[in-house]
């Protein structure tokens, strides 16, 4: 663990300024992400260096289709997320804090930043191009990103963040010089979806897309859930908004599967997903369907 960045003391509480939730955290408690705790008046990043998930993945699995295509990337994940999506497909680590590590099957390693960089370099012979922070929400472990991305870049590695984009502009801008590519979830194009299903809001995510697209390679992912975010009008509006930023930004429309607290609806029909992709292609150059 390590003292967090982006917080201020408020009496015996602390206010975290990392993401738009702006949690005011009582002594001993964590913020909504489960991993940033008020410990005796100091905000602590509890998951610093904790890596329960580490794998060499095809870069297309992030998904990134137009960035180092055909290569592999060392993919690391920790605990916690600042969204609470009812349909989360990674809830085993995303909706847990560091105190869960002893209860989880498999090994949680403590990996120093330089060790992760060296591990990534050692895998170059197997086609590895760098390090991706993925599986849980990487920004809630901001300090580990800050401590790892810079030596990774200095070592000549490619750096990737797979994120929900729900982060404040100042910490985002500070990190972007050390990020080569991002896949950002735009979970829907309505604030109601973000409020009711994710416990968040849409505008900060769109702001992250705008800022990131100006500084690094960006691809976007929408997990299509029938009846929730699958309307032709909604996907069309999303695609037109993306095109207003840059029509060459790739959009991945992925099929969801029932998970976590949303056992229904069943996955979208493949033909419906292909039709949504055609709608998006009216505005965008690169639209992919996934999980089909
Ligand atoms: S990063 Fe976590 S503690 Fe900080 S404001 Fe967001 S949810 Fe709250």
Description:
Strand 2 and strand 3 form a beta hairpin. The model has no long low-confidence stretch (mean pLDDT 95). Helix 2 (113-122) packs across helix 3 (142-154) and helix 7 packs parallel to helix 8. It is built from 8 helices and 16 strands. The chain starts with a strand and ends with a strand. With 292 residues, it is of the alpha/beta class. Helix content is 27%, strand content 24%. It is globular and about 55 Å long. It has an 8-stranded mixed sheet with strand order 8-9-11-12-13-14-15-16, covered by helices on one side. A 3-stranded antiparallel sheet has the order 1-6-5, with no helix packed on it. The protein has 2 domains: 2-44, no CATH class; 48-290, Alpha-Beta Barrel (TIM Barrel), CATH 3.20.20.70. Bound molecules: iron/sulfur cluster. Iron/sulfur cluster binds next to loops.
Radius of gyration: 18 Å
Examine the coordinates and then state which fold CATH places here, giving the name of the CATH topology of the largest domain: TIM Barrel
The CATH class of the largest domain is identified as Alpha Beta
| Distinct ligands, ions and cofactors found in the model | iron/sulfur cluster
- N-to-C SSE series? EEEEEEEEEHEHEHEHEHHEHEHE
Structural class designation: alpha/beta
- Count every helix, treating DSSP H or I runs of 4 or more residues as helices: 8
Q: State the end-to-end distance.
A: 39 Å
Shape: globular
- Superfamily at the CATH H level of the largest domain? Aldolase class I
Proportion of β residues? 15-25%
Which architecture name of the largest domain does CATH use?
Alpha-Beta Barrel
Mean of pLDDT:
95
Strand order in the largest sheet: 8-9-11-12-13-14-15-16
Helix content: 25-40%
């Amino acid at each position: 663990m390590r003292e967090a960045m982006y917080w201020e003391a408020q009496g015996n509480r602390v206010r975290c300024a990392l993401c738009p939730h702006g949690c005011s955290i009582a002594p001993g408690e964590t913020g909504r992400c489960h991993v940033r705790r008020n410990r005796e008046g100091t905000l602590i990043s509890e998951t610093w260096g904790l890596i329960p998930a580490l794998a060499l993945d095809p870069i297309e699995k992030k998904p990134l289709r137009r960035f180092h295509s055909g290569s592999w990337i060392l993919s690391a994940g920790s605990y916690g997320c600042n969204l609470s999506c009812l349909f989360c497909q990674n809830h085993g680590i995303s909706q847990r804090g560091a105190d869960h590590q002893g209860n989880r099957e498999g090994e949680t390693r403590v990996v120093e930043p330089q060790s992760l960089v060296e591990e990534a370099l050692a895998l170059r012979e197997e086609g590895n191009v760098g390090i991706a922070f993925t599986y849980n929400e990487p920004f809630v472990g901001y300090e580990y990103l800050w401590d790892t991305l810079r030596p990774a870049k200095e070592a000549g590695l490619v750096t990737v963040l797979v994120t929900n984009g729900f982060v404040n502009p100042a910490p985002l801008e500070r990190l972007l010089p050390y990020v080569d590519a991002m896949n950002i979830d735009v979970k829907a194009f309505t604030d109601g979806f973000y409020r009711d299903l994710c416990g968040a809001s849409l505008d900060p995510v769109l702001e992250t897309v705008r800022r990131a697209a100006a500084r690094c390679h960006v691809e976007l992912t929408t997990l299509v859930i029938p009846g929730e975010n699958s309307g032709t009008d909604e996907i069309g509006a999303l695609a037109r908004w993306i095109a207003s930023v840059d029509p060459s930004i790739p959009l991945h429309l992925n099929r969801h599967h029932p998970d976590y607290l949303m056992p229904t609806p069943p996955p979208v029909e493949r033909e419906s997903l292909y039709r949504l992709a055609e709608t998006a292609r009216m505005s965008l150059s690169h639209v992919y369907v996934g999980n089909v």
